[in-house]
Design brief:
The strands form five sheets. Strands 1, 2, 3, 4, 5, 6 and 9 form a seven-stranded parallel beta sheet that branches. The protein has 21 helices and 26 strands. The chain has four domains: 217 residues, 3-Layer(aba) Sandwich (Rossmann fold); 107 residues, Elongation Factor Tu (Ef-tu), domain 3 (Beta Barrel), CATH 2.40.30; 98 residues, no CATH class; 171 residues, Nucleotide-binding domain of ferredoxin-NADP reductase (FNR) module (Rossmann fold), CATH 3.40.50.80. Helix 1 links the parallel strand 1 and strand 2. It is 31% helix and 24% strand.
Length: 624
């Protein structure tokens, strides 16, 4: 039987879980699976499909991942209602219960699939990062249910499988056909290690390593060659050399400009909120091959390790299990430079690949990359091994568009953990080091943000990308549906990370105040359009900066003179955006609100805004 596995993923985890599901289902020798990005699978094809598995994460404030949005927007059309009565389906959601809209994309997809006539093969699998064994806690009891539904029950006829839940869903419950005794029989320990995750996943991996199963991913994203035109540092400035020393997750912020030749009709359709997908490459792939790879390296494998193998990713738990199992199959070996201690390293690798707590402490907590794991254990991998995850595109909101020139705002990742070496980002390092004039593979994805009437935009840090684009388009006379625009911009300090300060400096007189929160307010004008944008700056560390601002040469004099009137004791030690929002008038908040920046904003701001307005409102967001 043929069964497509469709995934939506911002960073690639759903694809890795899709690989696991594929291996589990193909173990019967009768099922053949193919893996697709959801956007690469036509919705209409579901009418001709007997069964399908959907796997997706949730991004931002409950949004679908970028490589699922085209599929999802088409599936929502009413014309598909009750069209897929012959389709049996299953859904896996990857999420974190600390977020209010936990697994929201998967829940909506599951419900919509029932509306279009699909019949659930088994209960929805809600994977939670907060569970004792992360996403594997839910997968371990769910995978046997799925295997039973697809195999023994026969997807063509689901009668008698499990019980109903009162909503017409077909459930393979743990206490039903796949009862607790059966599931416990499947979920034994790996090699007798206490507290380990189970035989189901171990069996998948053993099957993969012994049969040399290969996974091909069908993608929809159309890449376009873009020329890197310019790159300039916009923060830090002044006396600060490294933003990570100020508790940022990056060392600096760059404005990067590409030239992309697109069709004229595509140019006309551009709207703020459009996203640039960038496919990074490994710049150190030759060094990686020399240190960690054995076997014959041909041109295709060189391309694999340069463009496709993401050995700088933090590996998932089952990836370490594949590495450990590879020691048995010969796909992994100890470095020839290691003369003693082989058994010690093997036993330790067995622990971190079988006991989730050990894995969490060693890999997740410290954010160790696969490359670092290989180095720690003195391991080398076969050139043809499949355990290395794929490189996925990184997504950046377009912060400015001028004809064929597209700008993005890139924070150069530098996160501190307990390890001596800070964590760096594959894509940000790639873009930072790329030669001006070189060609980068990109894709332009349409905006999902609706902007009309009176608009209030609230952003922090590099979340200014979207507002910057909106401000530029609005001041140039475009965006006729927008009546007024107000930007509230939170950042750390006027002294070192006021992004795009050259564009957002005050042109009119500004005012500053401090009352349980401090802010600076002024207008920016369009020279030709005559339009104005109200800008409110909220520097979170204004209190500690006040004594230093008199000597700041990078800040406009009028701004300084107004700030000097603020008394330090009236400024909160942590002068966050929500302090300013709390003191806004009802009429200033009763607008089309868009929030962009860290997801914390979407947790904190909506309750404050709704309390002031006295009603529930829909807030658009672009958060991470």
């Amino acid at each position: 039987m043929y069964l497509p596995i469709l995934f939506g993923s911002q960073g690639g985890r759903s694809k890795e879980i899709g690989d696991l599901v594929k291996l589990e289902l193909e173990r019967d020798g009768e099922t053949r699976c193919e893996i697709f990005e959801m956007n690469a699978f036509p919705v209409g094809q579901l009418e001709k499909t007997q069964a399908a598995v959907f796997i997706c994460s949730t991004t931002g404030d409950g949004a679908a991942p970028y490589n699922m949005q085209r599929f999802w927007n088409e599936l929502k059309r009413k014309t598909w209602n009750n069209r897929f009565s012959s389709l049996k389906f299953a859904v896996v959601g990857l999420g974190d219960t600390s977020y209010e809209r936990y697994n929201y994309a998967a829940k909506r997809l599951y419900n919509r699939m029932k509306q279009v006539g699909g019949v659930p093969m088994c209960r929805r699998c809600d994977c939670d990062d907060m569970d004792e064994c992360g996403v594997y806690t839910a997968l371990e009891t769910w995978l046997p249910l799925l295997r039973y539904a697809v195999g023994e029950a026969g997807v063509g006829g689901m009668g008698g499988v499990g019980g109903g839940n009162g909503n017409g869903d077909i459930i393979c419950g743990i206490d039903g056909i796949c009862g607790r005794d059966n599931v416990d029989g499947v979920i034994g320990s790996i090699g007798g290690v206490d507290g380990s995750i189970d035989g189901t996943i171990a069996g998948c991996i053993s099957y993969a390593n012994h049969t040399h199963a290969h996974t091909t991913t069908h993608t929809h994203t159309t890449t376009t060659p873009a020329t890197l035109v310019s790159r300039r540092k916009i923060a830090p400035y002044g006396d600060v050399a490294d933003l990570s020393e100020k508790d940022a997750g990056y060392s600096e912020v760059l404005d990067i400009v590409f030239q992309i030749d697109r069709k004229e009709d595509e140019e006309e359709k551009f709207l703020p909120g459009a996203v640039l997908s960038v496919r990074p490459e490994n710049v150190d792939f030759k060094n990686f091959i020399e240190e960690f790879v054995f076997g014959e390296i041909d041109d295709n494998l060189l391309v694999k390790f340069r463009k496709h193998a993401d050995y700088q990713r933090v590996p998932m738990f089952h990836t370490l299990r594949q590495i450990y199992t590879g020691l048995e199959t010969g796909e992994v070996r100890f470095s020839q430079n290691l003369s003693t201690g082989h058994e010690m390293y093997k036993n330790r690798l067995r622990e971190v690949s079988a006991v989730y707590e050990e894995y969490y402490a060693y890999v997740i907590k410290q954010q160790r990359t696969l490359k670092e794991v290989l180095r720690d254990f003195h391991l080398q991998i076969s050139a043809k091994i499949r355990a290395v995850p794929e490189i996925f595109p990184r997504y950046y909101t377009i912060s400015q568009r001028q004809g064929t020139l597209y700008s993005i705002t890139v924070g150069i990742v530098k996160r501190k953990t307990g390890l001596k070496t800070p964590r760096k980002g594959l894509c940000s390092e790639y873009l930072k080091g790329a030669r001006i004039g070189s060609v980068v593979e990109v894709g332009v994805m349409p905006s999902l943000i609706q902007l009309e009437q009176d608009v209030l935009m609230v952003c922090t840090g590099t979340g200014v990308s979207l507002p910057r684009c909106v401000v530029n388009e609005y001041l140039s006379g475009k965006m006729r549906g927008v009546s007024s625009l107000h930007l509230i911009f939170g950042f750390r300090s006027l002294l070192y990370d006021f992004l795009y300060r050259d564009e957002l400096m005050p042109e009119d007189a500004c005012k500053a105040w401090a009352e349980n929160g401090a802010a600076i307010e002024y207008c920016v004008r369009g020279k030709e359009s005559g339009r104005r944008v109200l800008v409110t700056l909220v520097p979170s560390r204004l209190r500690e900066d006040l004594p230093l601002l008199k000597n700041a040469t990078d800040i406009a004099g009028d701004l300084i003179s107004n700030i000097e009137n603020i008394r330090a004791e009236s400024v909160p030690e942590k002068n966050y955006v929500q302090n300013t929002i709390k003191h806004m008038k009802k009429e200033d908040l009763d607008k089309n609100i868009v929030i962009s920046g860290n997801y914390r904003l979407m947790k904190v701001l909506p309750p404050i805004i709704e309390k002031i307005l006295g009603k529930k409102i829909e807030i658009q967001s672009e958060s991470w």
